[in-house]
Amino acid sequence: MTEHILEVEDLRGYYRGLFGVVHAVDGVSFSLDRGVIMGIAGESGGGKSTLAQLVSGSPPPLLYHEGGKILVDGIDIYDIDPERLRTEVKCKRMSYVPQASMESLNPVKRIRDFIFDVVEQRTGKRVRTKERKEEVLEMAGKHMKTLGLEPTVLNLYPHELSGGMKQRVVIAISTLWNPKLLVIDEPTSALDVTSQKRMIKALLNLKQIGIIESMLYISHDLTSLRQLCDRCMVMYGGKIVEIGDMERIIEDPLHPYSRLLTAAIASYDSKGKCAHELKTIPGNPPDLREPPTGCRFHPRCPEVMEICRTMEPEMVMVEDGKRGAACWLFTSESGLQNGRGAKGNE
Fold first, then answer.
1. What is the mean pLDDT of residues 322-343?
2. What is the model's pLDDT at position 334?
3. What whole-number distance in Å separates Cα of residue 148 and Cα of residue 262?
């Protein structure tokens, strides 16, 4: 048994079409330890969802695995037979819940019938007899309760459920076989605040009772990541720019991009007033058909140096290897020793 549930090494995934080649994920490496919830933060277009799609092992049309390894529970998912990927990895070792997954439910089928189809596909055994259906419904009903849903939802059609309930139904179906790793993309983006809290509580409960072991959770919302995640990666322009403990990234971000992201979080004092001035990030995310040379954040960075424009920074680990930042501010000895960047010549 490996120490890491997920290992990603020099992963590259590009979109190819009449629009050209989009370097959506370009040289990403990280590992996820067992029992850890890892968040992925960043603006839209940074590569978060593309990374999740590549990790799922079944990238959508026009997205191609260009290179690099993805090991799930020690299995290289791009170096095994597709049938083994389907039967040994998906749902059992890893399950993927894509963005807007609530729309994947068949509108003309009750939830129970949708589950029957999924069980048949996964087990290869037909669900036709009364006894077999009752067995599956009993299992599914108990599982629904772990996500705060009553077993009666099995008899309903998708249009009879709220957005939050549909999302939790999809997660329940995705975790029926107790996958060790759950990869989930923006599960709260279309929900109101109350439903968001219920969703986060349900996901934490899945981990606490042992249905899932680890989680890769994608969101542009740092506040929801903070409620759920142990560690976090910040992505920009198809690359990881910072990685570390969730609280440390929120309270003391290292990379200039991470600092600007956290500066955009609204917090309020006891009188209901914003505790600090909210800031926006100047400029726009890069066009990944023609990524900027050097550091991809340099056209928008308030601390840009000349080297940033021409040379790409490597990930530098600080704080005894617990945190890392890909920034030229962290290349001097003083920057490494102090765990903070040295601006160099300005």
1. 63
2. 35
3. 32
- Helix, strand, or coil (residue 91): coil
| Strand order across the beta sheet in which 4-17 lies | 20-33, 4-17, 63-72, 75-76
Residue 134 host element (H or E): helix 130-146
Task: Give all strands of the β-sheet with 214-218 in edge-to-edge order.
Answer: 94-97, 181-185, 214-218, 37-41, 231-236, 239-245, 323-326, 315-318
| CA dist., res. 90 & res. 72, Å (int) | 10
Q: Which of 185-189, 233-237, 263-267 has the lowest mean pLDDT?
A: 263-267
Q: Whole-angstrom Cα distance, residue 35 to residue 76? A: 20
Q: What is the pLDDT of residues 9-62, one digit of tens each?
A: 999 999 999 999 999 999 999 999 999 999 999 999 999 999 999 999 999 999
Q: What is the pLDDT of residue 36?
A: 97
Residue 291 identity: P
- Report the DSSP beta bridge partners of residue 7: 31, 71
Answer for the pair 212, 174: CB distance below 8 angstroms, yes or no: no
Contact 257, 43 (CB under 8 A): no
Residue 142: DSSP 8-state = H
Q: Give the model confidence (pLDDT) of 137-161 as tens digits.
A: 999 999 999 998 999 999 999 999 9
Is 100 in contact with 128 (CB distance < 8 Å)? Answer: no
Three-class secondary structure of residue 154 per DSSP: helix
What DSSP string describes 299-333? GG-TT--GGGGTSPPPEEEETTTTEEEESGGG-SH
Give the residues across from 316 on adjacent strands: 325
Cα–Cα distance between 74 and 112 in angstroms, integer?
34
How many C-beta atoms surround the C-beta of residue 132 within 10 A?
A: 14
> What is the pLDDT, as a whole number, of residue 338?
41
The tokens for 143 are 């599982």
Q: Give the 3-state secondary structure of residue 270.
A: coil
